[in-house]
Amino acid sequence: MNWIRIGRLDDIPRQGSRVINTASGEIALFRSVDDQVFALSNRCPHKGGPLAQGIVHGKRVTCPLHNWVIDLESGSAIAPDVGCAQRYEVRVAHDVLFLEAEAGVCKA
């Protein structure tokens, strides 16, 4: 695996997000209230809305354009909606964030 350092845990507010630019495009980083960090393509599977501008609740984010709810662990849309956002692996070590640089995984 090819891990790249992308910042610190404190760079992302709890129940918030940040965007990083990579060769694969924009990736949205989300932090849950219990400090878990998730990374998804910053494009909603519905119409490409900016997921990082959505509302984080639990381990889900609601797209700001059409209220689709996306599971942060899998990238999958919550039923009845169908589709998924590419997911990337994130590791946290001593409050430093690392992102798997390889192509994301979609589990829809």
Entry summary:
The protein is mainly β. The protein has no helices and 10 strands. Helices cover 0% and strands 42% of the residues.
Distance between the termini: 23 Å
Query: What structural class should be given to the helix and strand makeup?
Result: mainly beta
- Described by its quaternary structure, the protein is single chain
Tally the helices: 0
What is the H-and-E element order? EEEEEEEEEE
Named at the architecture level, the CATH assignment is: 3-layer Sandwich
Q: Count the E strands.
A: 10
Helix content: under 10%
The main sheet orders its strands as: 2-3-4-8
Mass-distribution shape: globular
How many domain units?
1
CATH topology heading: Rieske Iron-sulfur Protein
Sheet having the most strands: 4 strands, antiparallel
Average pLDDT figure: 92
β-sheet strand percentage: 35-45%
Please give the CATH class. Mainly Beta
Cα-atom Rg, whole angstroms?
Answer: 13 Å
InterPro entries: Rieske-like_NirD, Rieske_2Fe-2S, Rieske_2Fe-2S_sf
Keywords: 2Fe-2S, Iron, Iron-sulfur, Metal-binding, Nitrate assimilation, Oxidoreductase
Organism: Sideroxyarcus emersonii
Protein name: Assimilatory nitrite reductase [NAD(P)H] small subunit
